[in-house]
Amino acid sequence: MNKILHVFFFGAFIFAIFISFNGVNKIDNETKGAINNVLINHLSIIHPPDIVFLCGERIPLEIPDVRERFEREFYVEFKENQLVLDLKRCGKYMPYIESKIKEKGLPADLKYLAIAESRLLENAYSSKGAAGLWQLMPETAKRYGLRVDEYIDERLHVQKATEAALSYLQDLYKKFNNWALAIAAYNAGDARIKDALQFQWVDSYFDLHLNRETSRFVFRVAAIKELISNAHRYGFILDTTKLFKAPNVKYITVKGPIQNLALWARLQGTNYKTLKYLNPWILKSSLPAGEFQIALPAEVQPQELNLAEYKYRGSRVVFQNGEIIVIPEKTINHRVKPEETIESIAKKYNVTVEDIVELNKLEGKKLKVGQIIKIPVY
Questions:
Q1: SS3 152
Q2: SS3 of 317, please?
Q3: What does the alpha-carbon distance between residue 103 and residue 82 come to, in Å, rounded to a whole number?
């Protein structure tokens, strides 16, 4: 540990020298070499452990390729900026995740899977269509009771997504009776892991030949566990008062549709940015019909606004059946032609699809040829 601290102090000294050159176009080769040597020396004294457990199961590091694969993920994950952010985000999300894992009687190590999947970014999306803290695919999310459509994506709802992900992991363990295989199946799909086991005549994750992502995934989770749970050992000492914290919120039940969430937020005593920050699962600026639990800052109180003064894109605001309705002051009629869609009509008149749907009450309905619809004029 003294060696680590010594290297860090020396690194800080070199960094100070580097900063002193700010504004100078070129740094001399000797300084560059010193900085690179500090980084190399720093990593050279950091060694992965010889014994590693994940979810109570020992990773067989005595197998050469297993050792190599684990060490690869260990050093790849050893990124100081990223680890600091991971540790700070743990303060915001882990208390809830840990409570749910304990409630379900699952291994505590499963919490590190969320870091491996999303770096604890609740609105993360992958190129393959996975989303949220737990990177659930749409089909899996729906199978576990989450709503995923053009208005709502509950994969971005931390509480609901955590419940779904843990239930999915629980079911995977029941299928494979092994956590390494269950975690691999979470990444690749249970059918793919089952087929690989049968085809390759093996029964262990560590004996499987898999695609690149899945062959690394279990080791990535294990490496993250080692680095996060033993952060002090690797020189990461964070002031716990500086960790990110979950916002203090209250939940209110509302009934949709709500056409204008920005105005609705103001009436609740907050603003649109805060509403979207606390409820990233709301994808649009409106809510469809239905009942929703919405998080608001705990301290806010409803406010009265002078709606007579409220204008937005040439529209006016009225209350109708207890709802806030935004009505354009001018409209024109459009007769639907063959092969036209709401999207093509919206593009033609330079308005949004939501504008047309809300004005004509078209949610969930298909256009008919010859139908007359109103188009807002802004």
A1: strand
A2: strand
A3: 29
N-to-C CA span, the chain: 66
**Residue positions annotated with a catalytic role:** 117
Write down the residue that tokens 């975690």 correspond to: 183
- The neighbour count for residue 237, using CB atoms within 10 Å, is 10
More confident residue, 309 or 127: 127
- φ/ψ of 181, rounded to 5, equals -70, -40
Question: Could you tell me if 205 and 218 are in contact, meaning their C-beta atoms sit under 8 angstroms apart?
Answer: yes
Q: Are 163 and 184 in contact (CB under 8 A)?
A: no
Helix axes 158-176, 190-200, angle to 10 degrees: 20
Tens of pLDDT, residue by residue over 97-114, are 999 999 999 999 999 999
- Provide the 8-state DSSP code for 50: S
**Cα–Cα distance between 138 and 134 in angstroms, integer?**
12
Closest C-alpha to 281, from 132, 134, 140: 132
What is the dihedral sign for C-alpha 15, 16, 19, 20? negative
Tokens of 284: 């649009």
